[in-house]
Structure formats: structure tokens, C-alpha cells
Design brief:
2 strands; globular; about 200 residues; 2 domains; mainly alpha; 9 helices; about 70% helix
């Protein structure tokens, strides 16, 4: 315990367990594709699995319908007999569990231990991905992959001795551009719906 307190925001002096990487038999030997699909941390595959699980939960279960209804309009949900507080608590617990997987990957997959500020703003990128994905798990995954590709590209540029200031800018510039494009597209959809409603009236 004393050693942990001495670290001042880091667990570098403590032996930290890590989640193993998974090699997919048959796939790992495929040129190029094998490196893309195989050999990643087990939590990477869990993340993709969770996208499917969350999609089924939200769109194929009664609980998912309640969560979406409460998120859209708590008053209307309560008027049809949905326990709003209980549904919100369940959603909070589920989101906390999924978020903990991200934290576990950061400290036991991406890095071998905890250090202060290791997230480095990725939480805000995740919020941008959720917004761009219109709170849909599959679309959110696509947005997250785009931001992840931008982050990987910045790492590749760093290895090419590109100025550090430019390298660090890439993921966040991609996030801003993505949000601008999403906002413009969403605004066009809103105006189109409003115009259609006016024409029908």
C-alpha cells in the first residue's frame, strides 16, 4: 500500500496483470488481413461483441424499449406505466459496466498499468462518436473506428518524424470535422422534415 501511495498517480512499481492477445487460427496466416483481424487484445473482440449485445438489448428487448422511451421523453414513458427511476438506474449500471471495460483495456491492454491522465481526452472523442452515431450502437462503432484510424495515422506520422504539434492535432481535428459534418447533415434532415410537414399541412 505504501508503494502505491509513493507512485503519485502511477502504478509503475506494482506488477500489473494484463489481458491476453488472441490469435485466430487460420486467419492469422492470411497476408495483410490476418494482421488486421487477429492478434489483438481479448477486450478488443469483446468491444465488437458488445456492439451486437447492446443492439439486441436496445432494439429487441422490452428493457431496451423502456430505456429508449425514458431517454426520449421521461414524462411520456411514465404516463404509460414505465418506472422511470428504475429504468434510469438500470441504464446507469449498464453504461458503467461497459465504461469499465474501456478503462480495463486502457490499463490492462493498451498499457501495462495505470498512469495519471492516461486517457488523454479520449472520453470526449467517445462522446463525439456517440453523437455522430446518433446514439445507435452500430453507427457509433463506425464513428469510433474512424476516430481510431485517425489516432493510428497520427502514431504513424510520429514515427516519420513529423512535427509533434501536427501529429497531436490529427485525432482531435478529425473529431471536429466529423462533428461539423454530422451537424450539417442533421440540420438538413431537420429542415427537410419540417418542409415536408408544412407541405402536408
Amino acid at each position: 500500500m505504501y508503494m502505491f501511495l509513493q507512485d503519485k498517480g502511477s502504478t509503475s512499481s506494482i506488477a500489473t496483470k494484463v489481458f491476453p492477445s488472441v490469435t485466430i487460427p487460420g486467419v492469422s496466416s492470411i497476408p495483410v488481413l490476418g494482421q488486421i483481424l487477429s492478434g489483438h487484445n481479448v477486450l478488443t473482440y469483446v468491444a465488437f461483441l458488445m456492439v451486437a449485445v447492446v443492439w439486441v438489448l436496445l432494439f429487441r428487448t422490452r428493457l431496451g424499449a423502456h430505456i429508449r422511451a425514458v431517454g426520449e421523453n421521461p414524462g411520456a414513458a411514465a404516463s404509460v406505466g414505465i418506472n422511470v427511476v428504475r429504468t434510469q438506474n438500470i441504464a446507469l449500471l449498464l453504461s458503467g459496466f461497459l465504461t469499465s471495460l474501456g478503462g480495463a483495456f486502457m490499463s490492462m491492454g493498451y498499457m501495462n498499468g495505470f498512469s495519471q491522465n492516461m486517457v488523454a481526452g479520449r472520453g470526449f472523442v467517445a462522446l463525439a462518436a456517440a453523437s455522430m452515431g446518433q446514439l445507435h450502437p452500430v453507427l457509433g462503432m463506425v464513428a469510433a473506428l474512424i476516430f481510431g484510424a485517425a489516432d493510428a495515422f497520427s502514431n504513424a506520422m510520429a514515427a516519420m518524424r513529423i512535427p509533434d504539434e501536427l501529429v497531436k492535432l490529427i485525432p482531435y481535428a478529425t473529431t471536429i470535422v466529423g462533428m461539423v459534418v454530422f451537424s450539417a447533415a442533421d440540420q438538413r434532415r431537420r429542415l427537410a422534415r419540417k418542409k415536408q410537414a408544412m407541405e402536408q399541412s
